[in-house]
């Protein structure tokens, strides 16, 4: 799938277009079938139309076949879209759960946790606890802030 078609708007537009096409073709098939009220021809003083008019029957058959073929093609495209969405989801190209703002917040939290782990590691290595290591309060937003003791 083209990278420009992987965003939400393009996918929504593709789904909407396929939906509209399927509904249109399906309703066109039913519009081509005769209804009970259409049996009387207004030009023939209410008498039933000749059902053996080969040209009319052939024309309707062709129109129904064209619409049925178009409906089948639309449904094949829908199946292709479903397969593309499955591949995107499976291989990580379709990210439906995260928001870009969440990504920035998660990155900030990860930096904060990394800073705390570094502080703990330095405290343990700095001389057994007794206040000789770097204090936790000296770290802010993943960066070391100079403390009162000048470290």
Automatic annotation (TrEMBL):
<protein>
    <recommendedName>
        <fullName>Surfeit locus protein 5 subunit 22 of mediator complex-domain-containing protein</fullName>
    </recommendedName>
</protein>
<keyword id="KW-0539">Nucleus</keyword>
<dbReference type="GO" id="GO:0006357">
    <property type="term" value="P:regulation of transcription by RNA polymerase II"/>
</dbReference>
<keyword id="KW-0804">Transcription</keyword>
<keyword id="KW-0805">Transcription regulation</keyword>
<dbReference type="Pfam" id="PF06179">
    <property type="entry name" value="Med22"/>
</dbReference>
<comment type="similarity">
    <text>Belongs to the Mediator complex subunit 22 family.</text>
</comment>
<dbReference type="GO" id="GO:0003712">
    <property type="term" value="F:transcription coregulator activity"/>
</dbReference>
<dbReference type="GO" id="GO:0016592">
    <property type="term" value="C:mediator complex"/>
</dbReference>
<dbReference type="InterPro" id="IPR009332">
    <property type="entry name" value="Med22"/>
</dbReference>
């Amino acid at each position: 799938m083209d990278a420009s078609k992987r965003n939400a708007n393009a996918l929504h537009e593709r789904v909407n277009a396929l939906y509209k096409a399927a509904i249109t073709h399906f309703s066109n098939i039913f519009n081509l079938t005769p209804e009970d009220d259409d049996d009387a021809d207004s030009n023939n003083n209410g008498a039933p139309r000749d059902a053996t008019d080969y040209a009319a029957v052939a024309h309707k058959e062709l129109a129904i076949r064209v619409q049925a073929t178009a409906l089948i093609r639309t449904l094949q495209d829908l199946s292709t879209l479903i397969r593309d969405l499955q591949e995107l989801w499976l291989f990580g190209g379709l990210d439906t759960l995260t928001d870009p703002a969440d990504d920035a917040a998660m990155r900030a939290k990860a930096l904060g946790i990394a800073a705390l782990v570094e502080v703990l590691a330095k405290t343990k290595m700095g001389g057994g606890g007794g206040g000789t290591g770097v204090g936790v309060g000296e770290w802010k937003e993943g960066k070391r802030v100079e403390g009162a003791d000048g470290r």
